[in-house]
Specification:
- By secondary structure, this protein is α/β, with parallel strands linked by helices.
- Helix content is 34%, strand content 21%.
- It is built from 7 helices and 10 strands.
- It has an 8-stranded parallel barrel with strand order 1-2-3-4-5-6-7-8, surrounded by 4 helices.
- The chain is globular and about 45 Å long.
- It binds ligand LGQLAAA5.
- The ligand O=C(O)c1ccccc1N[C@@H]1O[C@H](COP(=O)(O)O)[C@@H](O)[C@H]1O binds next to strand 2, strand 6 and strand 8.
Length: 219
């Protein structure tokens, strides 16, 4: 079974190399100035070039306007856009049209009502990303290392293509993948030694568990 894996919030070639070596299908770059993982379009372009196309480059933005997206798309040339704010279905459709890129729409999940909110985006977003709600007082809509109740996903329509995200790490990814069957997983702070500082040893450890669980799923 194919399981895409995205390592998000990359800022250095060392961390990027570890992600690619581990088998990441996607690598994510954060364009959100309040984040400790924020990169400029120029920095992301250099990292993307360094990866040599071995993983799809995802640009993560939060309610970005066309001017911001124009600069990112022109400079970095991502393979996919992750919209991690409160973008409406109309805005998602507009972004897809304007940039001719696949779009992954992120949702903050706490209960079933949050999952129901994806309905108007079906057929518009190419993929969904389910993250936890940001804790009170957090300056970030994602990258908070917080998980949500994965049981909520058990009854989800099997045709929904989603990336599981939020508080994943080497210690819990095995349990997550035994409980739910996402087409993809996404991790950021779970492979960091401090906010915004990726740890290559933690990236390696994460992939070891993912590979072991993937083999379990295939058996
Ligand atoms: O990581 C950030 O700083 C960030 C900022 C703004 C929007 C999204 C961000 N990260 C996304 O958050 C999730 C989960 O992160 P974590 O594994 O819980 O730390 C991931 O999708 C990142 O793309």
């Amino acid at each position: 079974m194919v399981l895409d894996t995205k390592i998000c919030g990359l800022k250095t070639t060392e961390a990027l190399d570890a992600a690619v070596k581990g088998g990441a299908s996607h690598v994510g770059f954060i364009f959100f100035p309040k984040s400790p993982r924020h990169v400029t379009p120029q920095e992301a372009a250099k990292l993307r070039a360094h990866s040599g196309g071995k993983a799809k480059a995802v640009a993560v933005t939060v309610d970005a306007d066309d001017m911001v997206l124009d600069a990112i798309v022109k400079t970095m040339q991502p393979d996919m856009l992750q919209l991690h704010g409160t973008e409406s279905p109309e805005r998602v459709a507009e972004v897809k049209r304007r940039y001719r890129l696949p779009v992954m729409k992120a949702f903050a999940i706490h209960d079933q009502a949050d999952l129901a909110r994806i309905a108007p985006y079906r057929g518009i977003a190419d993929r969904f990303l389910f993250d936890a709600k940001a804790p009170a007082g957090s300056r970030l809509p994602g990258g908070n290392g917080v998980r949500f109740d994965w049981n909520l996903l058990a009854g989800l329509d099997a045709g929904i293509d989603y990336m599981l995200s939020g508080g994943l790490n080497a210690a819990n990814i095995g349990d997550a993948l035994r409980l739910v069957k996402p087409s993809a997983i996404d991790i950021s702070s779970g492979v960091e030694s401090a906010p915004g500082v990726k740890d290559t040893r933690l990236i390696e450890e994460f992939f070891k568990v993912v590979d072991a669980t993937r083999n379990e799923r295939a058996a």
